[in-house]
Design goal:
With about 150 residues, this protein is mostly helical. The protein has one domain.
Length: about 150
């Protein structure tokens, strides 16, 4: 079980990237989302919930061997990216902006994202990226509504 947790926790090795492992995990996530057949928002949310709890389990085990909130544990980036693209059109430019927005909030960690890291074990590892994904998604939903409303009228 420990080996499976580390494979999942590192997003199949992306977390071992020598440069910006969080960004590497996010790139794996956005590529997987791009090449996955389109899902309804409800279907994507269903998978997000499952992936979140799998991530809590895997991150808790990874912290045991790798220390608190280890950089190699990037499954949280997968879940955060999934949240970022919920109910957004599957277009390359939108996914590029979604990637940038998620990384922005994940790195900046505005309140309460920064506070969520104090949650115990895998809960803290996963929850800050969930919140970053929610922030990014809300900003993008608002941005695209403004753009499309202004373009139409």
């Amino acid at each position: 079980m420990k080996k499976a947790a580390k494979i999942i926790g590192s997003t199949f090795g992306a977390g071992f990237s020598p440069v910006a492992p969080g960004t590497a995990g996010s790139l794996v996530a956005i590529a997987a989302l791009w090449f996955t057949p389109s899902l309804s928002a409800m279907s994507l949310i269903f998978f997000i919930v499952i992936f979140y709890f799998v991530g809590v389990w895997a991150s808790t085990i990874c912290e045991t061997d790798w220390g608190h909130d280890p950089g190699r544990a990037v499954w949280d980036e997968v879940v955060g990216m999934m949240i970022t693209v919920v109910a957004l059109p599957k277009q390359w430019l939108i996914y590029l902006v979604a990637f940038a927005a998620f990384r922005f909030f994940d790195i900046l960690k505005p309140f309460p994202i920064n506070s969520s890291q104090r949650l115990p074990r895998g809960w803290g590892v996963m929850t800050d990226d969930v919140l970053a994904g929610i922030y990014a998604n809300l900003v993008l939903q608002l941005l695209f509504r403004i753009i499309f409303t202004n373009a139409a009228g």
